[in-house]
Write a structure and sequence with these properties.
With 262 residues, the chain is mainly α. The termini are far apart. Helix content is 68%, strand content 0%.
């Protein structure tokens, strides 16, 4: 199972061009949904306005070489290792889900476009990475959903409570879980159940990529930009890493100021 290309097996009943068209439509939905989200929420306008303010108020300019260095640091630390997460469990769950999603999406595109039929067998490692990617999504996603979410871990709410902000993670988990089940049922030779789970898999995947304007999918594009801007602010003196220490007596033991009538 783990070395077979499920899309090549599917080509016996679904022409490769149909699968390729579906993947292309999902790519268009991601691009269009992200652009719509940026325009609707005016995120780009806010970002560039704030960027101009930061440059104007900075104590010193950040020139090209330093800007490139900050961009590399942002990619290496904030993006690739998710260093912004102080909670290590949340960080590991996020990294599992992120890298699993990348592996899942990239190998899906490779198998659908480059190896769509049994006549063009995919290298054994490609399907393996596809399965591993979905397992990583399920591992990180379900760990986060049932044990790490603030409203579950700290507030004691049921993990089965759904709100609007959960569209992305729920549809992502549904896509990965149903994809695994579909591939397993297909390899077992049960075509009726394979068709049922294929339909559910496509439904969940369509919701995942088609609900960008209403989900948190586009945050994966916003967060690197925000992290880079934060580093630039720290470099030019606009932002301080820590607030200035308050000059208060030790008896108060905190950063609070004394009452005016003390």
């Amino acid at each position: 199972m783990f070395t077979s290309n499920p899309f090549a097996e599917l080509s016996a009943s679904v022409p490769p061009i149909v699968m390729q068209t579906y993947v292309a439509v999902m790519i268009v939905l991601v691009a269009g949904g992200t652009l719509f989200d940026i325009v609707h929420k005016k995120s780009a306008r806010y970002f560039f306005n704030n960027w101009r303010i930061v440059k104007r108020k900075g104590a010193r300019p950040v020139l090209g070489g330093e800007m490139v260095s900050l961009a590399i640091q942002t990619a290496a630390v904030d993006v690739l290792t998710s260093a912004e997460f102080c909670n290590q469990q949340r960080r590991v769950a996020h990294l599992l889900t992120m890298y699993g999603f990348l592996a899942y999406v990239i190998t899906t595109a490779i198998m659908v476009f480059a190896y769509p039929t049994p006549a063009t067998p995919a290298p054994g490692i490609v399907p393996v990475i596809w399965y591993i990617g979905m397992v990583m999504i399920c591992g990180g996603g379900y760990w986060f959903w049932f044990f790490i979410r603030v409203d579950v871990a700290a507030e004691g709410n049921t993990p089965f409570r759904l709100v609007h902000a959960d569209v992305f993670i729920v549809s992502l988990l549904a896509s990965a879980t149903l994809g695994l089940i579909w591939a397993w049922v297909q390899s077992a030779g049960s075509m009726t159940w394979a068709n049922i789970f294929l339909a559910l898999y496509l439904l969940a995947t369509t919701v995942l990529f088609g609900s960008i304007p209403w989900s948190k999918f586009s945050h994966m594009f916003y967060k690197p930009a925000a992290a880079f801007q934060k580093r630039v602010e720290q470099a030019n003196g606009t932002r301080r890493n820590l607030p200035a220490p308050a000059n208060v007596p030790a008896t108060f033991g905190s950063g609070r100021q004394l009452p005016r009538n003390y």
